[in-house]
Design brief:
binds pyridoxal-5'-phosphate, alpha/beta, 419 residues, 15 strands
Length: 419
């Protein structure tokens, strides 16, 4: 039987690039013999797994928390005591002027982006259709289909600065950026997935000023950032002001299975999120909040981020870079300066094949990466650079990353010599 589907449903059918990509990632697994450098899974860090197990054992022994975890709907903005815990933690560690009324929990931060993009872009009663502005692309592929209307994103090419030793870094091209009444919000991931870029404090300050001037929010996607999970190798000042919406997540600490996103925003935005949670899922899941509550209340999460999570990824990225450099010189490969997150963004200037062809050749050799052109939501103009880059995760087991890099090296050398 063939049903007919609404335009709303069509957004979610398998013809979208992201759904296809996710399907692909679901099939091309480690178990199926693939070297998986493609997806966004965090590492299973033994010290972190041990902490989660201790916390889980504590919950099993503590009836009140156990009941809260499994047997209750909470308010639609999340468990009140967890919202208080998070607000207290952000006051103490970041100096932010927030209370529980500035905190809402969502089922993963991905859900929050869907809410926020459709709250600030799309059709408005008075005035033109609005868009979300990504100040620079590449940006997170998960944003691409998160608008209910097509065409609600606009983004700009970055300024590229070459650095020493075969590295480069993207900067926001403020000269090119246009913010007018058609922009409903500005959004940036920091650190950026896919590039590992951490836009500088001054760039954040400039974006924040632009947002304030136009009376629109600045959404900062902090899935990898400070204060937790702390996968950020630069010293940054995490700031929050009432016109900013800070999106945090427990996923990259090592808890993606709990689907816990944490939004920090003005009370008005939090009330809206509460309403959206209520309509869409009654209440967010309790599991992550109950499991992480003690870690956040005691500030242990800061200690773990700084002393376990960050050093783990710092060591892994350095190893991955050494292996890549042993395969390819800086004429064949430029690497975006890795400042955070769990990916390397590899640029093969003047590659004679497209990143999509490279992806297919690598897939045929059981190596999974993501081709660059998927990471430019809202960039209208064609840009060759999109087809010369790939994203690879370095979060997986060392031997998988090393074997994958060897094959990437072989395929790139072959592409440069034979096409
Ligand atoms: C930049 C970025 N933002 C948001 C998310 C969504 O994470 P979650 O929904 O698990 O909190 C991800 C996941 O990979 C991400 O990379």
């Amino acid at each position: 039987m063939t049903f007919s589907y609404s335009t709303f449903a069509k957004k979610f059918q398998t013809n979208s690039a992201v759904v296809q990509l996710m399907d692909d990632l679901g099939d091309l697994t480690l178990e199926a013999g693939y070297l998986t450098l493609g997806g966004g899974n965090p590492s299973e860090i033994p010290e972190m797994q041990a902490v989660f197990q201790t916390e889980m054992a504590h919950l099993l022994e503590n009836q009140t928390e156990f009941d809260m975890m499994l047997s209750r709907y909470t308010g639609a903005a999340g468990i009140q005591s967890f919202r208080e815990t998070v607000a207290g933690y952000l006051q103490r560690t970041c100096g932010w002027d927030v209370t529980a009324k500035n905190i809402a929990i969502t089922n993963g931060s991905q859900t929050a982006f869907f809410y926020l993009f459709n709250a600030f872009a799309g059709d408005f009663e008075n005035g033109p259709r609005k868009k979300i502005l990504f100040p620079m692309a590449p940006e997170y592929v998960g944003y691409t289909e998160a608008g209910l209307h097509n065409d609600i994103f606009v983004s700009y090419k970055p300024e590229i600065r070459q650095l020493n030793n075969g590295f480069y870094k993207y900067f926001v091209d403020f000269e090119a950026l246009e913010v007018d009444s058609s922009i409903g919000a500005i959004c940036v991931s920091r650190p950026t997935n896919p590039t590992g870029n951490v836009i500088e404090d001054e760039e954040v300050a400039q974006l924040s000023e632009l947002a304030k001037e136009h009376n629109i929010p600045l959404i900062v996607d902090n899935a990898y950032g400070a204060p937790f999970p702390g996968i950020i190798f630069e010293d940054v000042e995490p700031t929050w002001e009432p016109h900013m919406i800070m999106c945090l997540s427990l996923s990259k600490l090592g808890l993606p299975g709990t689907r816990t996103g944490i939004l920090v925003a003005s009370e008005a935005v939090i009330n809206l999120i509460e309403g959206m949670n209520a309509v869409i899922s009654l209440a967010p899941a309790n599991f992550g909040a109950v499991l992480a509550n003690r870690m956040i209340a005691t500030d242990a999460v800061s200690h773990l981020s700084q002393n376990v999570v960050r050093p783990h990824y710092e060591a892994k990225v350095q190893t991955a870079i050494q292996l890549l450099r042993a395969e390819l010189d800086s004429k064949q490969l430029l690497i975006h300066k890795p400042e955070g997150a769990i990916f390397l963004w590899l640029w093969f200037p003047e590659l004679p094949i497209t990143a999509q062809e490279l992806y297919e050749r690598l897939k045929a050799r059981k190596v999974v990466v993501l081709p660059g052109h998927h990471f430019f939501p809202g960039l209208a103009e064609e840009w060759q650079h999109k087809h010369e880059c790939i994203r690879m995760s370095y979060a997986g087991p060392a031997e998988i990353v090393a074997a994958g890099i060897r094959i990437i090296g072989e395929e790139i050398r072959k592409a440069f010599t034979e096409g």
